């Protein structure tokens, strides 16, 4: 029997965790409150989830009593990743952007009823940080069982290589299946217990090696929209040699960052719509950026339920998507978090 989940969504962004909750097809669940300090992200969240109570403020503005009054038993969150990225300064707990997460770690032991379940997403690199060690100490103090992962959407059949760190925690006596009950190890392969969750989300039994879809399954068809995303002459001449170029038949794409569409190098794949790539004559290539809708599709945001407000620019959309998560991956992990437990 599925537990009843009352979810607090912290660092909610554009609602990736909320969509993952919906995608997990759980019967007894609701987001009781969401919190994010970003005005732009909050606008998108409220546009898509007008019925959810949303706070546009810092987490540090909530006391332990405030959190208790929210009535949640599940915490889902994506704390700021910039302090831990491999290309950043890696200031870790000394980065001001980590301050709210440190505050949260101090508040958790003060709660009258700490959450039964916790699901957290961050970048690769967090697992080697002081913030990570501090968080595990807090979870051990509060008697949580934990499971940690480094996973990409490709392992779930989605053609994207967005490698991310995930931490799952549940309060004892609840436990994870033995194969993932390794609190000091970060799992990088697809365990059988998670494979079962993937199959159940897909709605059918599949082979152990999950088939990766091709990018054509995620593309738009409106030519007028696509022409707007063609690479400029300046970009082609300067960056063609370093671009990750894919076709609709490819089964992979690189991680889309918040700078996609405006910085060409290392921010995400570009799409070749036909013909052989001509390095000697860059302007004769039929290359374009993925649209924001296509990036959202690859990140598994539902086409019928996720939309940006009409006045949002392309740059705003790319930035918000680049700061978000893969919905399908999290929905599978959520299934693992609440199932296969033993008392």
TrEMBL record:
Q: Name one GO biological process term.
A: methylation
Documented EC number(s): 2.1.1.204
Q: Name one Pfam family in it.
A: DNA_methylase
Q: A GO molecular-function term, please?
A: methyltransferase activity
**What PROSITE patterns has UniProt attached to this entry?**
C5_MTASE_2, SAM_MT_C5
Instruction: Tell me the active site.
Output: 81
**Do you know which SUPFAM superfamilies this protein is assigned to?**
S-adenosyl-L-methionine-dependent methyltransferases (SSF53335)
Indicate the enzyme's highest-level EC class: transferase
Residues folding into a coiled coil are: 205-232
A single cellular component GO annotation: nucleus
The answer to whether the entry has keyword Ion transport is no
Keywords, sorted A to Z: Coiled coil, Methyltransferase, S-adenosyl-L-methionine, Transferase
Concerning its family, UniProt says: Belongs to the class I-like SAM-binding methyltransferase superfamily. C5-methyltransferase family.
PANTHER family the record matches: TRNA (CYTOSINE(38)-C(5))-METHYLTRANSFERASE
Q: What is this protein called?
A: tRNA (cytosine(38)-C(5))-methyltransferase
Organism equals: Ciona intestinalis (Transparent sea squirt)
Name the lineage. Answer: Eukaryota, Metazoa, Chordata, Tunicata, Ascidiacea
Gene expressing this chain: LOC100183289
């Amino acid at each position: 029997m599925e537990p009843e989940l009352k979810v607090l969504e912290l660092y909610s962004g554009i609602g990736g965790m909320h969509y993952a909750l919906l995608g997990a097809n759980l019967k007894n669940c609701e987001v009781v409150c969401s919190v994010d300090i970003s005005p732009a992200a909050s606008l998108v969240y409220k546009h898509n989830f007008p019925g959810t109570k949303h706070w546009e403020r810092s987490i540090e503005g909530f006391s332990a009593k405030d959190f208790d009054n929210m009535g949640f038993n599940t915490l889902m969150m994506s704390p700021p990743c910039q302090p831990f990225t491999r290309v950043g300064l890696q200031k870790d707990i000394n980065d001001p952007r980590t301050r709210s997460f440190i505050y949260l770690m101090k508040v958790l032991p003060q709660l009258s009823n700490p959450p039964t379940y916790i699901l957290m997403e961050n970048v690769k690199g967090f697992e080697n940080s002081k913030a990570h060690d501090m968080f595990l100490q807090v979870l051990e103090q509060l008697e949580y069982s934990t499971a940690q992962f480094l996973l990409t959407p490709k392992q779930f059949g989605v053609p994207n290589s967005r490698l991310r760190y995930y931490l799952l925690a549940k309060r004892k006596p609840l436990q994870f299946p033995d194969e993932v009950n390794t609190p000091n190890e970060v799992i990088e392969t697809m365990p059988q217990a998670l494979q079962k969750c993937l199959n159940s989300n897909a709605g059918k039994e599949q082979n152990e090696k999950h088939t990766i879809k091709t990018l054509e399954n995620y593309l738009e068809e409106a030519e007028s929209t696509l022409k707007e995303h063609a690479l400029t002459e300046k970009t082609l001449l300067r960056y063609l040699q370093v671009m990750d170029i894919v076709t609709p038949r490819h089964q992979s794409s690189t991680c889309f960052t918040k700078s996609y569409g405006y910085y060409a190098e290392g921010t995400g794949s570009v799409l070749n719509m036909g013909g052989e790539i001509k390095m000697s004559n860059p302007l004769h290539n039929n290359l374009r950026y993925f649209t924001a809708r296509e990036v959202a599709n690859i990140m598994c945001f539902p086409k019928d339920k996720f939309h940006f407000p009409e006045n949002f620019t392309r740059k705003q959309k790319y930035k918000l998507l680049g700061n978000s998560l893969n919905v399908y991956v999290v929905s599978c992990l959520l299934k693992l978090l609440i199932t296969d437990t033993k008392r």
